[in-house]
Structures are given as C-alpha cells and as structure tokens.
Design a protein that fits this description.
binds 2-oxoglutaric acid; alpha+beta; binds fe (ii) ion; Jelly Rolls; three-stranded antiparallel beta sheet
C-alpha cells in the first residue's frame, strides 16, 4: 500500500526502473512516499504558519490557477502575496517532481488547485460529507472531473515535528462491490439542471454521479468506517506523498500544516487505463459512463 522511494531532490533523478515501478504502484492505488522531500518556506512566508488566516467556513486555503485567486482566507490582505508565492513555488516543485518520477504522464497532466491546510484535522467539526477523517474516495460535487483521474501531491510542512496521520482503506473494487448496488441511477435531466443552476461548473456526467455516490455513502456508513479493512500511515514533517485519491480509499485523521497540489489526468494518459475508476465502474455497471 505504500511505495517508498529514496528521493534525491524534487527533480530526482530517478532511474527508469524506479519510474516504471512508481507508475505501476500508483495506478494500483498505492501511495508513493518520499520520506524526506522538504518544502522550505521563505522567511517572510513563515507568518503563514498559523490557522488564523483560514476562513472558518472553508475546508482549506486554496489557489485556483485559472482565476489566479487565493480563496478561503480571512483578514489576510497584507499576506496574500506570501500565499501566492508559496503556492506558486509549491506548484512548481510538484510539477518538477512529477516530471522526474512519472515522465510518461508529462504531456497529459492538467494542473488543478493548490491548497494549504493550516488547521488541525483532529476534532474539527464539519458535516459528514465534508469530513475527511472518514474513509472515502475523492469526488468534487461542484467540479465534475468527467472521468479524469485526480492525482494529488501532499507535503507535511508542520514546524513542530508533528506527523500527519492517514488511514488507507480497502481496494477500490471492494468499495465498488460493497456500495455500488445501493447507488441510485442519475435522475434523467439532473445533469443538465445541476449545470443550469450552477451547482456544478460543468456537466456532472454519470461517472461523476456514481463516484460522488460512493464518496457520500462511504462517509455516511458508520459501521463501514469502523469495520472496513484499514491501515494507518504517518507522514512526518518534510515528507511528501503522491496518490490517486479518486481510487485509493483514504481518511486524514490528525495533523496540521500541509500543502497539496491537485492534477487531473485523462484516462488515456495512464499506463494501465483499465485500472481507472471510470473503467472499473463501467465494467461493474455494464454501461459507458461518459
Ligand atoms: O488533508 C489531507 O491530508 C487529506 C484530506 C482529504 O482527504 C482530501 O483533501 O481529500
Ligand atoms: Fe480526500
């Protein structure tokens, strides 16, 4: 479940064997783990090591490369440029890392949001659907991915020697076996309506519908949360990890101060497209979902 790499730098270099093994592990749902790949803040950015800039209504502080806006902050006008420079550098580092370790993805990767997570996860109040301390696969209710993969890079930047703790759940096919029979079909016309009402930014495809159903049903099921096969992982400060969060069942249970960069990858860019959640769900349902 965890594939550890002896990193050199964000830019590697990694051998061809390391690259091939990494893509196989990742596409199977394993976490690529770099035990010591630090992201060092500039001295004027260390002011950001506080949960106080985080808006209470937002899960994370984010940066959208399309709108070029920092979101989820409060009372932070004077530090916004520091957020921008931190996000920019982190995005660049992750791009360099992915180029070094997953070179075959290079021409397919699309950059998504960058996020900063300065609030302690443990004990945080939220609705069950937003509660990432429960095992889930990622699905974005308002930003349909239309079958694309969600590939995320995380770095623990905790300055107090505190690890970030995750749990990994059972393999995706088992999740599908357990929850798919309970997922209703999308309502006819609902995809069009959600987009018309601007609940979704683009069309929620049948794939987005089913993956969101899995996400919600996993989180809602208290018994599943307690009894599903799971394994705890600890990510110490200055470690970095890469994971397909749409495939790998995960829960973030404790920790403060992490950076994350999201990428999207078309299924055709994968080395084994049949391992994509889209293909697994299409096979299980016996129908195309896009
Ligand atoms: O913050 C983390 O470590 C991961 C939380 C999570 O599950 C998510 O953002 O999808
Ligand atoms: Fe998640």
């Amino acid at each position: 479940m965890i594939h550890t790499l002896k990193e050199k730098n964000w830019s590697g270099p990694f051998s061809r064997q390391e690259q091939e093994d990494a893509v196989v592990a990742l596409e199977k749902g394993h976490v690529l783990y770099f035990p010591s790949l630090p992201f060092v803040l500039e001295s004027d950015e260390t002011i950001l090591l506080s949960p106080n800039y985080s808006h209470p209504k937002s899960k994370n502080i984010g940066y959208d490369p399309k709108s070029r806006k920092v979101t989820g902050i409060q009372g932070a006008d004077e530090v916004t440029p520091f957020f921008e420079s931190m996000f920019d550098r982190y995005a660049t580092n992750t791009k360099i890392l992915l180029k070094a370790i997953l070179p075959h993805y290079q021409k397919y990767l699309e950059r998504g949001r960058t996020s900063y997570r300065p609030v302690e996860i443990a004990g945080r109040q939220s609705s069950y659907r937003k509660d990432d301390t429960r095992l889930h696969v990622d699905a974005f209710p308002s930003s349909p991915v239309q079958g694309k993969r969600i590939l995320r890079v995380f770095t623990n930047i905790n300055p107090h020697d505190q690890s970030r703790f995750w749990r990994l759940g059972e393999p995706f096919p088992k999740v599908v076996e357990r929850f798919l029979p309970h997922c209703p079909r999308p309502l006819p016309g609902s995809q069009w309506l959600l987009e018309r009402l601007r609940i979704t930014k683009t069309q929620r495809t049948p794939y987005d519908h089913y993956i969101l159903q899995l996400h919600n049903r996993m989180k809602a099921d208290e018994i599943y949360q307690k009894t599903a096969e799971q394994q705890e992982l600890s990510f110490p400060p200055q470690s970095t990890w890469i994971v397909y969060t749409d495939l790998t069942s995960h829960a973030a249970i404790q920790g403060q101060y992490a950076l994350e960069q999201t990428y999207y990858l078309p299924v055709d860019g994968m080395s084994s497209p049949e391992l994509a959640p889209l293909k697994i769900l299409e096979k299980a349902l016996g129908q195309l979902l896009l």
